[in-house]
Amino acid sequence: MRLVIQRVSSASVTIEGKVNGEIGKGLMVLAGIEDAEQLKRKRSASTKGKNNAGEHNPMFGNQHKESAKALQSYRAKNRPKLECPHCGIVCASSQFNRWHGDKCKLNPRQP
Length: 111
What we know:
Helix content is 28%, strand content 28%. It is of the alpha+beta class. The chain folds into 2 domains: 2-44, no CATH class; 77-111, no CATH class. The strands form 3 sheets. It has a two-stranded antiparallel ribbon.
């Protein structure tokens, strides 16, 4: 789907010679909607020959270098940990932001 927004002094929609809608000064939106089957065919054609599953994946059969593994391990172990002031759980920032802090179920002011 494509949308075009255009500022107009006046605009109208005519179907079979009959005016179905009109506006004065304002914004007009033109909407282009594509057939679902045609869209599926376009997407399918754009991915032809690009199978990256299994042995077609560029990393298939390769392993990460030991230095890369060590760096990932170091970063995972040294992520900043936060302690929830309501329940005392110490966790990674992603878990804290989702479940703890103001959203903690032990927070007395939680809605």
